[in-house]
Amino acid sequence: MPGPVFLDGDRLTLRPIEEADLEFLQTQINDSRIWGPLGRSKPLNREQEREFFENRICGDDSVDLLIVADSTPVGTIGLFEFDWESQKAELGYWVAPEHHDQGYGTEATERVVRYAFDQLGLHRIAARVFEFNEPSKQLLETIGFSREGVHRDAEFVDGEYRDVYWYGLLEEEWRARSE
């Protein structure tokens, strides 16, 4: 498994994304079961994936981790859109389709939320999902996120405008739930 473990979980580890992971990332992000729920509409070639890696993942403005189960990459999770003054960030994730319904997304999200509150000192984490992405809505609600609002017809996906649901989790809610 390339790269050191950053966060350890019960069944998986979260580690920094490395250049060696680009093929996995490009393959998965071009799978319609991934890009559809993320609201992407264009394919990414190898150079574009490398550019994303160099500009975002290698930058200081986000925390991007590979979700690994039994030495096998299964997805990604990260924090971005940091506002350090307000102590908040946005959460994003995806799990490769062949690894859906195994709890990897939930476990990874719990680890990253704990890290965000305990280590980064965040007060609030936001997440957004499309109206049709029931598994992602369920994941967020299971962890304690509250649906805070809807941006109606916010994105054009699969030939139609779709609502985007916004979720939020406050540190005090997380801590109260974890006790």
From TrEMBL:
Pfam families according to UniProt: Acetyltransf_3
Name of the protein described by the UniProt record: GNAT family N-acetyltransferase
Native source organism of the sequence: Natrinema ejinorense
Keyword Signal attached: no
Annotated N-acetyltransferase domain residues: 12-171
SUPFAM superfamilies (UniProt xref): Acyl-CoA N-acyltransferases (Nat)
Record-level GO cellular component terms: cytoplasm
GO MF annotation, one: protein N-terminal-serine acetyltransferase activity
PANTHER family in UniProt: RIBOSOMAL-PROTEIN-SERINE ACETYLTRANSFERASE
InterPro entries hit by this protein: Acyl_CoA_acyltransferase, GNAT_dom, Ribosomal_N-acetyltransferase
Sorted UniProt keywords: Transferase
Transmembrane segments: none
Lineage: superkingdom: Archaea
